[in-house]
TrEMBL record:
<keyword id="KW-0004">4Fe-4S</keyword>
<feature type="binding site">
    <location>
        <position position="302"/>
    </location>
    <ligand>
        <name>dimethylallyl diphosphate</name>
    </ligand>
</feature>
<keyword id="KW-0560">Oxidoreductase</keyword>
<feature type="binding site">
    <location>
        <position position="259"/>
    </location>
    <ligand>
        <name>dimethylallyl diphosphate</name>
    </ligand>
</feature>
<feature type="binding site">
    <location>
        <position position="159"/>
    </location>
    <ligand>
        <name>dimethylallyl diphosphate</name>
    </ligand>
</feature>
<keyword id="KW-0479">Metal-binding</keyword>
<feature type="binding site">
    <location>
        <position position="258"/>
    </location>
    <ligand>
        <name>(2E)-4-hydroxy-3-methylbut-2-enyl diphosphate</name>
    </ligand>
</feature>
<feature type="binding site">
    <location>
        <position position="109"/>
    </location>
    <ligand>
        <name>(2E)-4-hydroxy-3-methylbut-2-enyl diphosphate</name>
    </ligand>
</feature>
<feature type="binding site">
    <location>
        <position position="199"/>
    </location>
    <ligand>
        <name>(2E)-4-hydroxy-3-methylbut-2-enyl diphosphate</name>
    </ligand>
</feature>
<feature type="binding site">
    <location>
        <position position="229"/>
    </location>
    <ligand>
        <name>[4Fe-4S] cluster</name>
    </ligand>
</feature>
<feature type="binding site">
    <location>
        <position position="76"/>
    </location>
    <ligand>
        <name>dimethylallyl diphosphate</name>
    </ligand>
</feature>
<feature type="binding site">
    <location>
        <position position="76"/>
    </location>
    <ligand>
        <name>(2E)-4-hydroxy-3-methylbut-2-enyl diphosphate</name>
    </ligand>
</feature>
<feature type="binding site">
    <location>
        <position position="257"/>
    </location>
    <ligand>
        <name>(2E)-4-hydroxy-3-methylbut-2-enyl diphosphate</name>
    </ligand>
</feature>
<feature type="binding site">
    <location>
        <position position="76"/>
    </location>
    <ligand>
        <name>isopentenyl diphosphate</name>
    </ligand>
</feature>
<feature type="binding site">
    <location>
        <position position="159"/>
    </location>
    <ligand>
        <name>isopentenyl diphosphate</name>
    </ligand>
</feature>
<feature type="binding site">
    <location>
        <position position="159"/>
    </location>
    <ligand>
        <name>(2E)-4-hydroxy-3-methylbut-2-enyl diphosphate</name>
    </ligand>
</feature>
<dbReference type="Pfam" id="PF02401">
    <property type="entry name" value="LYTB"/>
</dbReference>
């Protein structure tokens, strides 16, 4: 049987500079009295799980050589994916696109047992870069399913993380997407019921859904520990602090990044006059600055700090002062590299182990 050829490396089109209105034109359109300032959220950007996953691909390329296949986007950020593609990573949708016997990395969002089995069936060498906090939720799903409980998985159906968690115990799991579904979901035994959640959701919306579920099912169990990851909670807390003072909030992050999208929603809910998500600084519309005294800036948990720097430089060009960092938490969590990769690094004399955020904030 012929082997399916690998997907070609995608080469992004060169970015075309925007033809912008000048700072003077923007200022004239809606004059602002007093200084214009920037409130920069901290924490922001890379979390430990993202850092671990990205470095796992980088180290795999360094020690195994290109190509290294990656199932799905290693993290949900177009800049990171493009950079890794340029170094020799090939991103595929499913394991059957990977040549038999090749090396494939599972993304930070996790995979179901069916995906693991598919890789084994094709004799693929695997590196599991699933975030340890997602792995925790997987283990909870397995444990509660074995105990005979029905699991209400709060999350967005179709998201890779939800697909992976659901796949651990599909016969015991029902996905609850939103408050409306929480009001109508049917369960078999309300006394053997537990909720779990996608790690990157809005903390407030998740708790709203749990409140609705508990009103309907008073014996609903909580997970042993909070499933919303520390990075998601911290980034939302930071933007909640900034939003009431912000005329405009800019969130750097990709459209398929759940935690980035949630940051826009949280900013608006907590008082920002306007909030937008962009992948790159050149996607910012300078007309957003008209009449704006204070801009809040943050980024999702899969965004490298270099992209924030580009946004701050653009704001400086339009008269905004040096960024004032608003610190609401400090992050010092470290995750070791995937075990499959650690053995290779030890053999090569590479002593890389614990990984955290690449830029410490706070």
């Amino acid at each position: 049987m012929p082997t399916r050829s690998a997907a070609p490396v995608s080469v992004p089109m060169p970015r075309i500079p925007r033809q912008r209105r000048s700072p003077a034109e923007v200022a004239a359109a809606a004059p602002v009295e007093g200084p214009q300032r920037v409130l920069l959220a901290a924490p922001r950007g890379y979390c430990a799980g993202v850092d671990r996953a990205v470095i796992a691909v980088e180290k795999a390329l360094e020690h195994y050589g290109a190509p290294v296949y990656v199932r799905k986007q290693i993290v949900h950020n177009v800049h990171v994916v493009s950079e890794l593609e340029a170094r020799g990573a090939i991103f595929v949708e499913e394991t059957d696109e990977v040549p038999e016997g090749a090396l494939v990395v599972f993304s930070a969002h996790g995979v179901s047992p069916a995906v693991v089995q598919s890789a084994e069936d094709r004799n693929l060498r695997t590196i599991d870069a699933t975030c340890p906090l997602v792995t925790k939720v997987h283990r909870e799903a397995v444990r509660f399913a074995r105990a005979g409980s029905q699991i209400l998985l709060i999350g967005h159906e179709g998201h890779e993380e939800v697909e992976g968690t659901y796949g651990e115990a599909p016969e015991h799991t029902t996905v609850v997407n939103n408050p409306a579904e929480a009001r109508t979901v049917q369960v078999e035994d309300p006394d053997k019921l537990i909720w779990l959640s996608q790690t990157t959701l809005s903390v407030d919306e998740t708790m709203e859904i749990v409140t609705i579920l508990r009103e309907r099912f008073p014996n609903l169990q909580d997970p042993p520990s909070d499933d919303i990851c520390y990075a998601t909670s911290n980034r939302q807390a930071a933007i909640k602090k900034i939003a009431p003072d912000a005329d405009l909030v800019i969130v750097v992050g990709s459209a398929n990044s759940s935690n980035s999208v949630r940051l826009v929603e949280v900013a608006l809910e907590y008082g920002a006059r306007a909030a937008y998500r962009v992948d790159f600084a050149d996607e910012i519309d300078e007309t957003w600055f008209e009449g704006v005294s204070t801009v809040g800036v943050t980024s999702g948990a899969s965004v490298p700090e270099v992209l924030i720097g580009d946004v701050l430089r653009l704001l400086s060009e339009y008269g905004f002062g040096e960024a004032e960092e608003v610190v609401t938490a400090e992050e010092d969590i470290l995750f070791s590299l995937p075990k499959e990769l650690r053995a290779k690094l030890k053999e090569a004399g590479d002593d890389s182990r614990g990984l955290g955020g690449r830029v410490k904030q706070g």
